[in-house]
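> tool_call: predict_assembly(chains=two)
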Amino acid sequence: MDMSEAGRATPAGGENGKGRSEQATVCCYCGTGCGVLASAEGGRITAVRGDPAHPANFGRLCTKGSTLHLAAAPGGRALYPKLRDARAIVGITAATTPRRRVGWDAALDTAAERFADIIRRHGPDAVAFYISGQLLTEDYYVFNKLARALVGTNNIDSNSRLCMSSAVSGYKATLGADSVPTCYEDIALADHLLIAGANPAWAHPIVFRRIEDARRANPDVSLTVVDPRRTETAELADLHLQIAPGSDVLLYNAMLHVLLAEGLVDQDFIRDHTSGFEALQAQLGSCTPGEVAAACGLPAAQIVEAARRFGRARAALSLWCQGLNQSHHGTANNAALIHLHLASGHIARPGAGPFSLTGQPNAMGGREVGALATLLPGHRNVDDAADRAELARLWNIPALPAAPGLAAVQLFEALAAGRVKAVWIACTNPAQSLPDQARVRAALAQAEFVVLQEAFADTETAAYADLLLPAASWGEKSGTVTNSERRVSRVRALVPPPGEARPDWVIVADFARRLATRLGRDAAAFDWRDEAAVFAEHASLTAGRDCDMSGLSHAVLERDGPQQWPFPAGAQRGTARLFQDKRFATADGRARFAPIGFPVAHALLPEPVDARHPFVLTTGRLRDHWHGMSRTGKVAALWGHTPRAEVVLNPANIAAHGLEVGELVRIANPRGELVLPLAADTGIAAGQAWIPMHWGSASLAQPGANALTSPAVDPASRQPALKQAAVAIKPARLPWRAAWARLADSPAAACALLENLRPRLAGFAYAALSLTGRERNVVLLEIAAEATVDAAVIAALDAAFDCGADDAQVMTFDDAARGIAKRARVAGDALVALRLVGEVQAFGWLAAAIAQAESLAPLRRWLFAPLAQPPSGLAAAERTVCNCFGVGEGRIRACLASGAGLEGLQQELKCGTACGSCLPELRRMVAEVGREPATAAA
Amino acid sequence: MVGNGMAGVKTLEELLKHAPERYDITVFGAEPHGNYNRIMLSPVLAGEMSLPDIMLNDLAWYRRHGLMLHAGHTVTAIDRVRRRVRAEGKDGEVVEAAYDRLLLATGSTPFMLPVPGRDLPGVIAYRDIADTEAMIAAARRHRHAVVIGAGLLGLEAANGLALRGMDVTVVHIGGWIMERQLDLPAARLLQATLESRGLKFRLGAHTGELLAGADGRVARLRLKDGGELPADLVVMAAGIRPNTALAEAARLRCERGVVVSDTLQTVTDPRIYAVGECASHRGVAYGLVAPLFEQARVCANHLAGFGIGCYQGSVTSTKLKVTGVDVFSAGDFMGGEGCEEVVLHDRAGGVYKKLVLKNGRLAGAVMVGDTADGAWYFRLLREGGSVAAMRDHLLFGQQFAESQRAAAGGLDRAAAEALCA
């Protein structure tokens, strides 16, 4: 059944039972593309719930999606165009010359003047656009047309380069086009699921809910997970292949070897619908499970078992994400995995096929629009002269530029080298998300002109912007997005943008008209009535292409709800699955066993691990944060599941390297360093280190994991190998510690305090800025240094945290000789602000006491005591497991100890009964308890 | 024995325990009472106790122990050659007594500021039952009281008068109140509490003169800076002076007190002993009850002929309830050169704690509001052992510090934590 038949139960502007107007829109986080019914009152988005009619989620939302209204609250927003008259950037540190507020005309005229001037002096390739998979399709389209048709450069790339470009290359190499052939419904139809390099339990929770449903409905559905980490997803697998980082391509080829050896291939399918099989077969000889077992870090038997499960399945579906893509051989990883489907015929039928999960809400839309350096609209290619000629005709311009454009990492390299003089960045945060931050920041620092078009003024990149253009954000702008299963949905505006912020496409079209005038070109090409007109132009360019959506329009989407492409003109409905006729998007209609997916001769890791850098640093996502945290980082409740940035090692490595859990360690390689507390987890294999990718210099003293990651890229996809870097980990030896906490009056006040503190973080060897609380918003800052920090610095932080004033509401504790100085501000019976200098053991539970509005009376005596645990009777600071109901680990364990199972937990504590994102963790905790007697008996 | 106060009678009590038959004892007391607890005069003034409540030894007690008490008789001369004392009663009656051993326990005299008007009616000291009764009487008839001196005695007088309905201002020459027991932050915290109860303070204020009203009674107090305060009652609580007039007349060596040895014998005449506020031991005249009792024990021991007691001076501590606020101080609580301080200050909660450490040992402590651990600190202070190992926990009290030490030593953590619940 085509899910689009489900239609739209809730039209835009429908009313719910409470009489509040609800609008159907789409979540702005991952690429699952969940439908959201959002309510607004008084110009504020006040509530969200899952859209029961949206086929991506049928009413479900995860922790992040269900707090969208909180993230949409004001705070940290860019409100007015602001211009820096002169650059004054020293080294790679942020600019300090303040920007002044200007009007939109002045802002865009200045931008047009600067761009026109640079284009005239240095040619069109001296400017570049670096945009985002979070832009709407309409925004994307206008940007792309601006770069290609007006400026005449292919220097336009998107942060999707960091995320999906290896999948794009993999699909193109094997299936002939960037076409995800499967859909969400296939999850329920498959009897074998292979999840590779993805942790959907955390990163795509609603997809994972479907997986849980499928396994519940059919206990015979088997789940194999391939991941170097024992993630929450892997915990629930029937078979977890904990592979060595970077060895994916070997694994899939060895699995293919097993399929061949055991006759588990579909010879008819290979013969009738593929090409290149003989060439591949000839090369697979050396790729036996035994040969690759050591390199993969797996027993050969596990590889054989994984292959058998895949090969013997009735319908095998593979789901993957950054673990395959963010590699210097990411295309090979993708192709090798797709080869398994081609060889076994697990493709082009319901329940079977490759299914890449996208990380951003509109990574797919960007690909359709072609707003990446290597692509053109309608899945056309820059390096195809016919594609260029066709598009030039459609756009009514003489020609499109042929010179290849710069992909993300190269773009910033060119900026650093001075080949690119000006960069226009929109809706993304390269000073957090690109690898090798030192070089990226140096590039931004020495560029001639940096324009940042952003909803948030407090991102890492904002510090480098000469011109900051305030953009509308989620809930404030209208257009479309395409999710992982090719489904196009309407995104709607519920509230006006704050300040003078404008929708992205409006800003770009306005700029394009001003630039066209200066370049002596026709400004009318950038004159659209509304976003529906932009979409219509975009859709018309897809006619006849694999991603044909020429039958789609805003009006159709309004009427019929979200639709999957292809949706050609005249179609009545979208298309759930591609290639059902087994004709692929290649010239001969045959899928290809692509040479790029053959066993690779080059190193599995982008750089060698050696005695000086003995750990492979892997990066990944957390359950309750998203990307660089410019949204989720503003919602205190979303900090509960993982309260702070840590580097995680296997316990065996910790002891062997003379490290201690909890101590601050310096993670370093020649590109940079990062200081974080050390945590232990047996789920991290020995020899590996794990750091979540979310934390950047907005919350740390250093730029996060990307201070260390490698700028090496896949030669075909040009996607950087963000997943693996060689690092050294040593004790940081920062004995001087201090910590501050303050209850903020409102989320907006918390954001303002965060914004005030961020520029100070880089001044410390270690700093961690965070939020805690649910109903209350408490801002926390922890710092460490080699020696006592200057009193003026402490005084400034005291002032920011309201601990400085010498009034009767401030309690003090001083042991000057020991360098200990603590302050606490009380208000009535509650603690509202705290400063611990010199000794910080109690910070965790004291911060929790502020967040939970604990009565001060039983606490008062122990406020300043060096107590790592709260005095009995007081709640300890604990990790939140269930974010919907704010249920912490301690309460769950207590309930389990009293004999409850999962149902008991759900009845007693309500945890896991709303969004379900915590269900995998709850199940694991239940299982742990269940295992205990067995262990004891043994 | 000359003086029927607390130090002297305590010595007798100790002596009677050790050697009840050794001496025929004669006691001269200037006040016409038995022996009472002078410290408890403040509760009497505050209306919390009555005089019978504070009597320690009534006249029957003297009779029962065969003591000859001459209450209301002031000793006027000592004839050390003939070993006799001469006393005069209020009515001029003269009593003489011979001694083998003489115990001087003459106490101290309130210091009356040498300012004009000091002799006016309504200007009194605060020392004995008579003063207390005078204040109670004044509070019934008059509105404005000024207490000169913000030591313990002055504050208690002020508090008592305020409780009895008077409008009280404390005039204090020092920069903060109770400067012999408190440092500045402690004093400010206590002052704030007292102010919240209606007492007024003039600190750094020098009394210039006392002015009479139309009825001849004191009516105003003029400060040296020219300011004036209404004052129907002026209580001088500006300190005490050891009462050494008798000893000096007997040519006993006095240096701000009758100079005594470690056995409490006067250095001039080994048959004569001195204890209490009148005695000066190693240059120190004590004004607190605990040292006086320590002296009494040593003195009684010596009088009993045991000869093994030896008084080496007292480390003083003050643990008081000043008008309902717990105050504790001990040792060198001001700190200074070579000292380290650990300080907790909770103004809103009315708690201040300061520990002074020197060379890893506790040298002093001052606390306001929460003095529960005063005795423990005092013990640590007197024992003089190193507290370095528990320094970080010290200020949070005995139970906490010892439980943390136990926890660090591997004992049951839960038990340790239970202690701080």
